[in-house]
Amino acid sequence: MDENIPGAAQCFAQFGEVVTRSGRQICPADVQDADALIVRSVTKVNRALLAGTPVRFVGSTTIGSDHLDSEYLREQNIHFCTAPGSNAESVVDYVLSVICTLEGLLETLLGGGRVGIVGYGNVGKRLGQRLSAIGIPWLAYDPLLDPKQHPCLATLEEVVNSALLSLHAPLTVSGLFPSFHMLDALLLAAMPASSVLLSAGRGEVVATDELLSLMDCRPDIRLALDVWEGEPTFSSELAARCAISTPHIAGYSLDGKKTGLRMVASELAAFLGQSLHVDDSEAAASALVVSCIGDDALSVIREAVLAVYDVSSDSQRFREIIHTPDRSEQFDLLRKHYPPRRELGYCHLHAENAAMTNLLHALQGGK
After folding, report:
1. Which CATH number fits domain 8-82: 3.40.47.10, 2.60.40.10, 3.90.580.10, 3.40.50.720?
2. Residue 142, marked binder
3. Which part of the chain is CATH 3.40.50.720?
4. Dihedral (C-alpha) 305, 334, 202, 266: value to the nearest 10 degrees?
5. Residues 80-106: pLDDT tens digits?
6. pTM summary value
7. pLDDT digits (tens, 9 = 90+) for 206-240
8. Residue 284 and residue 281: Cα distance in Å, rounded?
9. What contacts 261, CB < 8 A, 6 or more positions away?
10. Which of 67, 126, 202, 241 is catalytic?
11. Where does the UniProt annotation place the signal sequence (predicted)?
């Protein structure tokens, strides 16, 4: 089991002996006596890792699946699962924090500026719902979905023409619409003046060289990057040119991790024919209480979002490592020692101005 899954050792101990390892370093020798393997997206699960082992169950507590060789797992009749949507609200909170942090962006969006969403899956849908709830217009692009069933869908060119372009597409390298390097500098250069490009899905959706070229021809565009091509290796040059840069932690809320853990543990319990016992009392007891004193929507949104999660703190920690010779190792250490972070939906938000109560409720996704 990956050692960096909070609460996992205690949770999975009810099923048998638990052995933890660094996720990036899990090797065949580690699973020679394992019946189940629990990982995050940093572990490549394929024939090279599992051939000749007794592993019959693989669970990933993350939303993505590009690190799992699903074809091989099916061939070997190895049951596998991920945790789709488990950290979607955490990623939405990240986007909202970026909106509230970058100078003038919240004002632009509340004034009618549009958000363009690339990838209308679990994250994209929830981001759209939360934006609508607080009065921010948006469009989405997802070539795998039918626009007749999803009227919010538009062409990629239309979505790019937004004050904030937010990328949440999963990584795919085959099919009719592969997301690998799907956006280039030429297309992104059509973004409006002083717009923002945010990437919190997979780093390989836009090539590093394309982003650097974009910054050369359009220095007015601000970058907010949480994912990087080739992680944990990343371009220090690109990171230095970002307005906000973080080490793939958009979905790293305590609540998102707990949800992913619970989803995989439930799947394993069902696979084994056992009951699952989960203790959520500690998370419930640590919920934040935030009182907002603002009298207008802009002030209340910014105050509430940043009181719960201020992305600038994560960006500052990341900036301290981008020019270090061991930045790949430091990248992983920032993730391993990431401070506990709650989601807006699990906090108690109060407004001194009663007229702002519904706005806070909407900001939490209706929770």
Report:
1. 3.40.50.720
2. yes
3. 8-82, 87-245
4. -80
5. 999 999 999 999 999 999 999 999 999
6. 0.91
7. 999 999 999 999 999 999 999 999 999 999 999 99
8. 5
9. 5, 6, 7, 8, 11, 61, 83
10. 202
11. none
